Amino acid sequence: MKQAVNRIASTIVYPTENPYLNGAWKPCDTEWTASTPDLQVIGEVPRDLNGVYLRNGHNPVHESIGKYHPYDGDGMVHGMRFRDGAATYTNRWIRTTGFLAEQAAGKSLWPGIIEPRRATRRGWGSIGAMKDNAGTDIIVHAGKVIVAMSQCSEPYRLDPLTLETLGPDADWARSVGTRGICSHFKHDEHTGHMTFFNYGEEPPYMNYGVVDRDNKLLHYVPIDLPGARWPHDLGLTENYSILHDLPLFFDPEGLKKDQHRLGFHRDVPARFGVIPRFGGNADVRWFEAEPCYLLHLSNSFEEGDDVVMDGCIQRNPIPDLSALPREGYARMNALLDMHQQQAHMHRWRFNLKTGQTKEETLDDQVTEFPMANGRHGGRPYRYSYNALPARGFWLLEGLKKYDFQTGASQTWMPDKGSYVSESPFAPRDNSQGEDDGYVVTFLTNTETGKGECALLDARDISRGPLCRIVLPHQVPTGAHAYWAPDSMLAA
Ligand SMILES: [Fe+2]
């Protein structure tokens, strides 16, 4: 089968100089369902890989109100289902309330994240000033895909195979109210729990919650913070979650006047709150650390009295833009440049006995979008699979595998003009080790205009893809990805 199921004509006006609407970022306009053998396969689809690779991203339909930012576009999920040596590609827009409203109107109704209406944004999506596109994060929990956007939004659920939007999660979303959930939320493969947080500009500045394997909200508590913050991830270990209070936040005086001046406060320590999975505000142990910002964690785990957290620290989250023109895209590119942010792998150790924090640089090289074997999520682990960002622009031009036990690493760079997506580890059936399986990614090839799904041997990614499946269209560069083995697809 190779079927163009639906096409939605774009109203975006081309040519445009916006780099996030061209090249590897050019949105697609067609929803496909396409399977082998009607898709070209270079190599062989392995029979011992059974599950689905899912990648979220922003794929705008309509011409934006003002300048388009790559976080604004309508959410679209691309899925590659592997089953008994066959593969099926499916891509669908996420039918959020905002998406459907704009489809009915035939145009954009909400300005994006960098437009002046940001003054009224409250960290909320379709109920506030910004369209909820649900296009940032993606996991599978309780047998369904959950997607949401970084600004906090309704948790939308999708069928993990058809990618049909099942709607906002009505079972427990009402309990979290207009705060919604923020990317990132975490799924614990061992317990089936999903942990999450949200944040806002009025107290409580953060809430923390846990949903069980049957999709019931078990726990939802307010967390005291010194002010409005802008966190992006939370850590998960076997017994704890790790909350982030980072010195990148809006000027509190400005907020009183509805002005949103985001600043990095180099003299304010980062704080990380270790909270028992079902703990409350009084149970949080706060640990201070060097000032930093942090988007994405690779993994966290417990070791003796330590809670250990690994992720891509940013020492310079907001680069100096003063020499760059306000017109054009130089400032946007600088703000999205992971080399300017100096993102690199870092380890924090929070000692529960002494209250001390120890920090360690794991690698100086700029990497982002770290992924670990989901079975080791929250538990001791050895390997992380990170993306190597391009310079000066938001693109991922290669992969790096870390072995934290030996200090060794491997890299793989695809052909020129070809870019990877976030690339999770996918265990083979009866996997015998932490890296016994595949690393799976979508490739966006700007030279050929073709999209591919590539599988690499996780034990040696430097050999390049074992298998490439050529897709019916170019898969634009996107946001987060997830691997769900077959065992997670049934509720
Ligand atoms: Fe993220």
Structural descriptors:
34 strands; binds fe (ii) ion; 6-stranded antiparallel beta sheet; mainly beta; 5 helices; 491 residues
Summarize the structure.
This protein is mainly β and 491 residues long.
What does this structure look like?
By secondary structure, the chain is mostly beta strands. Helix content is 6%, strand content 39%. The strands form 8 sheets. Strands 1-2-6-5-4-34 form a 6-stranded antiparallel beta sheet, with no helix packed on it. Strands 3, 29, 30, 31, 32 and 33 form a 6-stranded antiparallel beta sheet that branches. It contains 5 helices and 34 strands. The two termini are 27 Å apart. The radius of gyration is 21 Å and the shape is globular. The longest helix has 9 residues. The site of fe (ii) ion (FE2) has 8 residues, from strand 21.
Q: What's the SSE blueprint?
A:
Layout: E1 2-7, E2 30-35, E3 41-43, E4 51-55, E5 76-83, E6 86-93, H1 97-105, E7 137-141, E8 144-148, E9 156-158, E10 165-168, H2 173-176, E11 186-187, E12 194-199, E13 206-211, E14 217-223, E15 235-236, E16 240-245, E17 248-250, H3 252-256, E18 262-264, E19 270-276, E20 285-289, E21 293-303, E22 306-314, H4 330-336, H5 338-341, E23 344-351, E24 357-361, E25 368-371, E26 383-389, E27 396-403, E28 409-412, E29 418-420, E30 425-427, E31 437-445, E32 450-457, E33 465-470, E34 481-485
Antiparallel strand pairs: 1-2, 2-6, 3-33, 4-5, 4-34, 5-6, 7-8, 8-9, 9-10, 11-12, 12-13, 13-14, 15-16, 16-19, 17-18, 19-20, 21-22, 22-23, 23-24, 25-26, 26-27, 27-28, 29-31, 30-31, 31-32, 32-33
